Structures are given as structure tokens and as C-alpha cells.
Amino acid sequence: MNKDDSKANKKVEKRTIDIVHQGLAKRYRAEGRFKFYGLAAIVMSLLCLAILFISIVGNGYKAFRQTYVELEVFFDPAILDHENLSAANYSGLVKSTLRKMFPEVKGRSEKRELYKLVSPGAAFQLRKMVLKDPEIIGRSISVWVPADDDVDMLIKGYFSTDAAENARRLSDKQLAWIEQLREQGKVKKKFNTTFFTAGDSREPELAGIWGAAVGSFFALLVTLLLSFPIGVAAAVYLEEFAPKNRWTDLIEVNINNLAAVPSIVFGLLGLAVFLNFFGFPRSAPLVGGMVLSLMTLPIIIIASRAALQSVPPSIREGALGVGASKMQMVVHHVLPLALPGMLTGTIIGMARALGETAPLLMIGMVAFIVDIPRGFTDPATVLPVQIYLWADSPERAFVERTSAAIMVLLAFLMLMNAAAIVLRKKFEKRW
Amino acid sequence: MVFALLPKKSPNRDGGEVEIEKDLRVEDMEATPSGQDGPVLVSRENRQTVGVGTVENPRMTCRNVDIYYGDNHAIKNVSLDIGRNEVIAMIGPSGCGKSTFLRCLNRMNDTIEGCRITGEITLDGINIYDPKIDVVPLRAQVGMVFQKPNPFPKSIYDNIAYGPKIHGLKGSKSALDEIVETSLKKAGLWNEVKDRLDKPGTGLSGGQQQRLCIARTIAVNPEVILMDEPCSALDPIATAVIEDLIDELREQYTIVIVTHSMQQASRVSQRTAYFHLGDLIEIGPTEVIFTNPRHELTQDYITGRFG
């Protein structure tokens, strides 16, 4: 009986190593599959990112160049009144110049079509020239003025001339004039400085991103000045000094909840409290910054607390052991070590604030603002809102400007992230 | 000489010292072994302290100290004295509460949530748990060296100068330089680091880091130095250097050292206290503890039966 048992056992029983070998292939297969899934996920996300970037850059890169038309302007003393140069009829000057270039053009509607070839901005440009140097009156100067956005689109090849005349933005005559100018070498694409120096405009060729960028800068400055000190102070108190009881638990839960609140809710809060209750100005970067700091505060507090927690307790003990007070321990040892993490969290929060649109719509930063803001209370808009506004505009030329503005916004974000990495590397200490 | 000692724990706290002093006389008495040869050991079940915990003119005294972590009773009714210019070692298996007890001597346990202490610990006759006592000067007086070397992530110079700076001991730069130099010399580190005082302290080797921590502690000129397993992370050579250092420091400071190594305790200390699961089992001169333990638990430990 016993012998049979042991025999049977011997047959059934394998060496452990055999069992291990048996399962080995399956294990490696599972591992290979797992690796493949991970790799596929990464390839997928990189692909999506690449498509996104290619589409944005593909749409937007042409906006950095703008079509200009060369006009031979005679600064006619008859038109330009010496007494009141700033209010003179500069658009009349542009018109007379165009008429001179195309003397065959007669008739009202034809003339109107001709005038549409150059941007209304040409008149402003001439005005600026005259105001800068009144000596040029009476002389003839060749000036490059921005072409109208429709001409710009044609030159950039965005619409075909095959369509019926009434189905396109430029008539047969206008196309002929443009062709004529081209042959004379009077149409050229140049770097679009307007885009980087001007505020918003109804005319795409005159619209720029600078106003929104300055608005963003002011709003983010307010956000940083409010949320970084408050956030760090709150985190230090909660992490280092506060007793651990039900109240601090409650506060912690609420901070975590605030970080998850949709941003438009903060906008409504800003509208109700800052605008309606305190009566702060509408559309102001000051209020925008305050609303954005409400939104970034929980992010900064959470990141700062995590940074404080990651400071090894041995450093705290060492400081206390030589007789440092709690305050000295925090200021001399814990804060410097936690600073890189805090800065990273802050910059991530700021980057989120930079890209935020919804709460700013609520406090009126969505307004059409041409002037470049000069202070915290001037009406302003911000980059993402500018993108939203342009994306909403019907003109074809705003499509590429929208993409270009997105590129500018992304560049700012990358700059901020790079700053976060540099700061972290700089302040990081190893122990 | 036969030892048999069964001191009764004092029922009232104030009588603790008196009671133990009575035991001193008991020590000389002949025990009455019931027909056995050799020394009679106190049985394992008996958790009362064996030996004399008091010394004349003590620096620190602990009377009936109980420590709780929440509901956990970590130290049970411990009474002992720490004499002047002596090295007292605390040994015992892991989790016996020796580190906990050590950290109470300069109130480092204040930082631990839920830690509660009853009883009396005095430094030069002043109760350090008096609400009026400020922990900052206390910790300047009772310095501490930790198990893991924990230099600040600053330069070697700043590591040493930090304590004197925050206490405002020396104002001028030259005086501070002097403190740094003497502290490093006392810690036996000066020759190794004098050319790179501006280099980070974290770049030193483990043994050098620990000596740096000792130098940092003695820079504030404490009277008592608490060492919590200072050599547990070090190799034998670095350990030997630190043990020599402890022996030298004894002339100026009182040192309390917690150690896992019985050899280390026997090498550096004059008195040894053996802890077991929160009880102070036996205390006495080091050579007595290691050659003639009077408690079964002590004997088990030093003969390597456990721990």
C-alpha cells in the first residue's frame, strides 16, 4: 500500500524546475504582450500629438507672413493740411495713389473695388509716417502697405480663381489688377510684424496677438503674486504647524475638492463677488488674475504639501537636535529643500491658468479690445480668449491667425514648463 | 559572591529613590539560594529592575517614567540616573523602547503625534517636562546624534556653524571659524575635511558624515550627548573611530548611547542598562552586566539566546 502510494506520487510529482520551465514561455508571452500594449499606447499618444502639432503649424505658419503692396505715394500738400495733420484725409491719399497707379479705372463701383485691394491700415501707416516726419509732404515715396486680407489669401493660394465670379471674394477685375501689380513686382510677402505688435482688429491683416499677450501677462502676474505666497503659507501651516484633528482633515478634504471644481464656477464666483459685490472693473486683468488665483491656489497648496512631505524627517530631527526652534527648522531646512517641488507645482498651476478661458468669460475679459492694456485695471483680454474670439470670426484670414495664436500660446506654455525644469534642477539638492 | 536581588517596585512615586538605595544594601547580603550551586538569577517572569540605577551627584535623573504611544505602553515605570562624565549604554532587543527612552531625554518625542509621558525626568535638578521649560535651550544642552547620519544638505562649514549661529553663540566670523575648527578637531574630522569645508556635507563617507553630525552636536557645547545607535550604519573601521571618539568625549560630556552591539556597549560604556519590552530589566556597571548578569533575560540576551 505504502509502496504503491510513493510510486504514484513519484509519477505525478515533477521537479519544481520542470514546472517552472513549463510556465516560462507563457510568462514571457504575457510580458511581451504587456510591453507591446504600453508601447502601443505611447506610439498612439505621440501620433495624436504629432497630428495636432502638424495641423496647427500647417494652418498657422503662413500667418507669420503677410502680403504687402508697394504704393508710390505722393504726399500731396493739397490733401494734407498743415494745420491739422493728425486729422487729415489719409485714406483719400491712399485712394488717389491707387487711382494714379491704375489710371484706366473709371466709375464708382470700379474704383471702390480698386480701393479694396489694400488694407484700411494703409491710411494709418501713412498718417504715422507724416506725423513722424512732416518734411515728407510734397515728396513722392514708395511705401509697402499691407494688402487686404482677401488679396493676402489669394497670394497665399487659399482660394481658387476657377469659381464663378460671384462665388468668390475677388472679382475678375481685381484679379487682373493684382496680376498686374505682381508683374511689376509690387506685391510681396513679408514678415508679419503687425501680428506680434498689434492688438485685436476686425481686419485680419491688422489684428495682432500682443494685446492679448500683455493681458495674459498682467493677469498671470496678479495670479502669481496672490497664489504663490498664500499657497505656500497655507501648505507650510497645514503640514508643519497645524494640529492633526477633525478641522484640519476637513480643510484638507475641501482643498482637494476645490482643485476639482470646474473653472467656470470660479468665474461665476468672481462675477458675483469681485464685480458685483466689490465693484471691481470689468474685463480687467486684476480681476482675471484674482479669479485665476482662486483656481490655482488648491493646486499650489497640494503640490507644496507634497513637496514638504518629501523632505526627509532626518533633516528635521537634525535641526531640532541642535536646538533649532520649529520655525527655524522650517525656514532654514525644510523650505529650501521643498522649494523646487513648490516651484514646479506653482508653474504647473500657472500654466493651467494661462490656458484658462471659461472663468474669464464670466468677468468680461471676452470683450473686443483693440488697445494694448497699460495696467492692471485697463480692459484686456488674454491669449486663450483671443484664440476663441478669432476662431469665432468669419474671415478666412482669421483661420491661420487662430492657429498662429495657438502656436504662440503653446510656445509660452513650453517656456513656462522649461522654466519649471530649470528651476527644479537649480534648487534641487541631493541628500 | 552570589547575587540575588528582588527589589520591590516602590508603590509611591516619591519613594523611588529611597527604595532603590535600600537595594544597595541588599546587594552585599548573601543570597539564600535554595540548595542550588552558582548564582541565582531573577526569573524571566519578574520584570522589576535589578541593580542600582542611582549614582551620586547625577546629571540627569529619571523617576517612574512611563511612555505611551497612543494606547501602546512603550516604557514602563523606568527609573535611572545618568552620572556626570560617564558613558551609559542602553542595550536590548529591537522594539524594547531604548530609543524611545533616549528621545525623551531631550524631548525629541514631542514631535511624535500621540506620544505621552508621565513621571519625572530632571536635568541638574530641573524637571524638563515642566510646562515652563523651553525645549530650545534644553536641546542646546542635551544634544543628539541620530542612527542614520543626517548632515544638512549644506557645506561642511555650514553644518557645524548652524547650531552656534541660531543660538547666537558667536557673532564674529573668526570666532565662528574657531568653533568649527575645534568641533571638527574634537570629532576627529578636521584633518580629513579642512581643505574642503565649503564642500557639501552629504558628499562625505558614512563614517565621516556621522562624525560630522557629532561635531555639529558638540559645536553648540551641550552638556549631555544622546547617541541613538550612532554606528549601526557604519563599517567596523568607522565604528572603531567613533568609539574612540566617544571615549575621548567622555572627559567633557555625559554620553548616553543606545546600541545594538553588546561589544560596543562593553567597549565604550561604564554603566549599562538592559531594556526588555519596555521594562528596565537590569542596570549596573558594564563589566558586571556582561560577566555576571543577575537576571535571566539579561543573561539570555548577552549569551545570544535572542535579540
Quick description:
With 431 residues, chain A is mostly helical. Chain A contains 17 helices and 3 strands. Helix content of chain B is 34%, strand content 21%.
Structure description:
Chain A is mainly alpha-helical and 431 residues long. Chain A contains 17 helices and three strands. In chain A, α9 runs antiparallel to α14. The longest helix of chain A is centred in the N-terminal third of the chain and has 45 residues. The radius of gyration of chain A is 33 Å and the shape is extended. The N and C termini of chain A lie far apart (67 Å). The mean pLDDT of chain A is 89. The longest helix of chain B is centred in the middle third of the chain and has 14 residues. Chain B has a single domain, classed as P-loop containing nucleotide triphosphate hydrolases (Rossmann fold). Chain B is 34% helix and 21% strand. In chain B, the strands form two sheets. A six-stranded mixed sheet of chain B has the order 6-7-8-3-9-10, sandwiched between helices. The chains are: A mainly alpha (431), B alpha/beta (307). At the A-B interface, α13 and α14 of A face α3, β6, α4 and α7 of B.
Q: Topology of this structure?
A:
The complex is a heterodimer of chains A (431) and B (307).
Chain A: H1 2-12, H2 16-60, E1 65-74, H3 90-101, H4 108-115, H5 121-132, E2 140-146, H6 149-155, H7 172-183, E3 187-191, H8 193-197, H9 210-241, H10 246-259, H11 263-277, H12 285-309, H13 313-321, H14 326-354, H15 358-362, H16 383-391, H17 397-427
Antiparallel strand pairs in A: 1-2, 1-3
Helix pairs in contact in A: 2-17, 3-5, 9-12, 9-14, 9-16, 10-12, 11-12, 12-14, 13-14, 14-17, 16-17
Chain B: H1 16-28, E1 60-69, E2 72-82, E3 87-91, H2 98-104, E4 115-123, E5 126-127, H3 135-141, E6 142-145, H4 156-167, H5 173-186, H6 190-193, H7 206-219, E7 224-228, H8 236-249, E8 254-258, H9 262-268, E9 271-276, E10 279-285, H10 286-291, H11 296-302
Parallel strand pairs in B: 3-8, 3-9, 6-7, 7-8
Antiparallel strand pairs in B: 1-2, 1-4, 4-5, 9-10
Helix pairs in contact in B: 4-5, 4-7, 5-7, 7-8
